[in-house]
Amino acid sequence: MKGLRLILTGFLGIAFVSCASTTIDQQEIPSVVINAVMTKYPDAKELDWEVKGGIYEAEFDLGKDDYEVWVNAEGTILKVEQEIKIAAIPSVVLNKVKADYKDGRLDEAKRIEIGKNVYYEIEVDLALGDQKVVYSAAGVKQDPSVLTRISK
Question: What's the whole-model pTM score?
Fold first, then answer.
């Protein structure tokens, strides 16, 4: 039984490592990927890069906001996440979230672009714990899985 436990533990460790993204130096990033990010965010500094499954992720601060930008190897920006203040959420979205979660306190928010679609991910502090909810820019509640649907 101990041998089986060791084998399973080792297998799970290998599986976890193989699913993780890899941090890489900017010199290893294709220039078309760097150009895509720098064209859209020319003031971005101190970018941290990761790659997973052929998708490059740049993390950086711009002003007081944190950004994460996903780019494919052809230089197409697939997804942008921007941490924003609650006050920056459009009123149509903010009013809907407040109506849906009357007993909750809005804690953190992100503005997320996937293709031409814009979503807002908001963390709501509730009596039974925190819950992340997702709304479209029109104020329509979305299944959180919408944020994982990125075409390469």
Answer: 0.80
